[in-house]
Amino acid sequence: MGIVSGGGEEVDAYVIGVDEVVKEFEGRCVAIIHRLDDDDDKLVLVPEIMMDIPDEEIIRATHFQEWAFEIEIWR
42-46 and 71-74: which strand pairing? Predict the structure, then answer.
């Protein structure tokens, strides 16, 4: 992607709505998970058909990693 996070590394992204491992993905960025206690925000990517994913679904799908951080969902 070439987008650098506040921590100086390339921004990571969660791909929600795909049930297989992918090396590449083409879809839409529908949100940013902004970590209030860390400089490493995350993009939230979804397939075109999932454009209206609610915040609660993003939180549920990323909880395995984001549980340790205080986050806000930015749209």
Answer: unpaired
HEC readout, the chain: CCCECCCCCECEEEECCCCCCCCCCCCEEEEEEEECCCCCCEEEEECHHHCCCCHHHHHHHHHHHHCCCCEEEEC
- Residues linked to residue 33 through DSSP beta bridges, in sequence order: 42, 73
* CA dist., res. 73 & res. 49, Å (int): 20
pTM, two decimals, is: 0.89
Q: Any idea where the domains of the chain sit in the sequence?
A: 12-74
**Mean pLDDT in residue range 27-51:** 94
